[in-house]
Amino acid sequence: MNRSRLLMIGVLALALGAFVSLLVYKNLQGRGPSNNEPGADVIVAADDIQVGARIEEHDVRTAKLPASGLPGGVYGKRSQVLGRGVIIPIAKGEFILPSKLAPENAGSGLPSLIPPGMRAVSVRVNEVVSVAGFVGPGTRVDILLTGTPNGGSEPQTTTVLQNVAVIASGHTLERNAAGEAQNTPVITLLASPEDAERLTLASSEGKIQLSLRNPLDTHQDPVDAANAKGLYKGGTPSAAPPRAPSHPVKQQKAQPAALPSVLSVEVYQGDKKPDIVKFPEQSGEDAK
Average per-residue pLDDT in the chain? Predict the structure, then answer.
């Protein structure tokens, strides 16, 4: 009898535990998202895509993600991105956005990187001019020119352009005087039409040098031209405007006014005692 009661109590305890577990499970499910949002097809990068590349079939893949978590402007079809040029590097798994692609029918490569109203100008450099190879796409530089202005004999260095964007770096194949092929490093800069003219003129007037700068520093400082006189000790500095000698002004004490002199005259009247009459003495100008 006792064993039957113990068995019955065990069965009831198991049933009660199963019932409580079922209630907890349903309660946890009820706290989850109330609606099952369907996923939307979105085009993402299947691999790293570099600047100037043309998007091919193997560069992208389709992913299904919740529509509420997608950024604006995402593409949902491969045909919308295939053949477009890349103007901003795209990492693997990133969304393909319009801001990272060149306009349609703009092609790929360097032309797709040039914004409207700007020009791409290439200059020949070496390891020194290109700051030991640290000048590459995405960096910003200042252009320095060293030459002899106005046919003078003293060289000067001046800053021609500031905060110029570098959009490409590579090598072009040229031939030397003997006709042998050689590689020449080339840096392509993004400039306005006016700055492109100045850069081209600077390349022909003297020797140019690139000065690498922090891309976050966009301030353009006024820089004066430097010459050889300011580099050596004892050099003749530029003449400063002469200053008028400053002498302390001595304050003169006010002299007391001179008292007019008095002329005494004795006047005799008969046998009386003479009277003395005093007259103020006049100066020469008053006498006139």
Answer: 76
**d(Cα 83, Cα 44) in Å, to the nearest integer?**
15
Domain termination residue (choose one: 72, 87, 108): 108
Spatial separation of the C-alpha atoms in residues 208 and 129, rounded to whole Å: 7
224 Cβ neighbours under 8 A, 6+ residues apart: none
What 6-9 contacts at long range (C-beta under 8 Å, 24+ apart), as own/partner pairs, is: none
The SS3 assignment for 29 reads helix
- DSSP letter (8 states) at residue 32: S
Contacts of 264 (CB under 8 A, 6+ apart): 276, 277, 278
Give the tens place of pLDDT for each residue, 112-157.
778 888 888 888 877 666 666 677 778 889 988 888 877 677 888 8
Same domain as 205, residue 126 = yes
Report d(CA 138, CA 166) in Å as an integer: 6
DSSP category for residue 178: T
In a domain, 168, yes or no: yes
- Is residue 144 assigned to a domain? yes
Nearest residue to 82 via CA among 110, 64, 105, 48 = 105
Report whether 256 contacts 249 (CB < 8 A): no
pLDDT tens, position by position, 248-269: 545 555 555 555 556 666 666 6
Q: Residue 77's domain spans which residues?
A: 39-108
Tell me which of 92, 108, 124 is where a domain ends. Answer: 108
**Residues 187, 163 share a domain:** yes
Provide the residue type at 134 as one letter: F
CATH number of the domain encompassing residue 103: 3.90.1210.10
Contact 97, 42 (CB under 8 A): no
For residues 127 and 192, state if they share a domain: yes
- Stronger pLDDT, 125 or 241, i.e. the higher one: 125
Domain count within the chain: 2
Q: Is the pLDDT of residue 287 over 60?
A: no
